[in-house]
Amino acid sequence: MDKKKKIAITAAVSAGVGVASYRLRKSLKHSKDSESITDLDSNNTESKSISQVFSHTECYYEKHIKRTMDIICSGLALVVLSPVFLVSAVAVWISLGRPVIFVQERLGKDEVPFNLLKFRSMKNVFDEYGVPLPDQKRRTRIGNIIRKLSIDELPSLINILKGDMSIVGPRPLPTNYGPWFYENERKRHSVKGGLTGLAQINGRNVLSWEERFVYDLQYVDHITFLGDVKIILKTVEKVLKRSNIGERGVNSPGDFHVYRSGMTEQELVMWEKEKREKECNA
């Protein structure tokens, strides 16, 4: 059987693991019962730490070489690409103003949050519900260029140098996606997130979320030096060819938390706002 077909089948099975939970959440969305989705979430697996759910045994490469390779590669890249970094920062400043760096809280190793750094590529424009307008309506001309060339990712090299991330690993996702992972998918957080990974070189934006997670878990279970080198080289090739880089295509999945919750973006924003208010008043 073709490898990609196997991935698709595994992804379909993975999606089915939490389907009962998903349907229950969706049915509660319009429920008038006193128990809310927030109450349901307080009892899910999110309350358990990753170490309680999964045990990841690091190989020799992970323990003694991977971090050193991250420091050397990210340090050299920052030096070599410093002219590109400077020109990009000035271009973003001229087109969007300050700040030039976009900071977003992401889930790191063991689900410990960290601030991911990227060059800004979009304007901060929202609708009446506080939901950002579609990317194409917010992206500037400079933003389109740096996204297509993946230049917007350059500041993330600082995250790698600091130890928040690795060169290769599952792509770190926003913290507000956290409540929507199925238990088996959380295993991707047992290692550091990466600038690139197995999912990124096998389709990136055209993969379903379940397919991405299958690739992520496959990587977590088979981390090797040669594997990382192959992923890095394949990433460079894809960036140069501009293959599955930058803009989401028409077949790309939407934001994960919207997709998994079964709500519209507006409904989800209102629900998250309600949840924060309840937590503040608790």
UniProtKB/TrEMBL annotation:
PANTHER family: COLANIC BIOSYNTHESIS UDP-GLUCOSE LIPID CARRIER TRANSFERASE, UNDECAPRENYL-PHOSPHATE GALACTOSE PHOSPHOTRANSFERASE. Keywords: Glycosyltransferase, Membrane, Transferase, Transmembrane, Transmembrane helix. Residues 66-241 form the Bacterial sugar transferase domain. This is Bacterial sugar transferase. Its EC number is 2.4.1.-. It comes from the Bacteria. InterPro entries: Bact_transf. Belongs to the bacterial sugar transferase family. GO terms for molecular function: glycosyltransferase activity; phosphotransferase activity, for other substituted phosphate groups. The chain crosses the membrane at residues 71-96. It is an enzyme of class 2 (transferase).
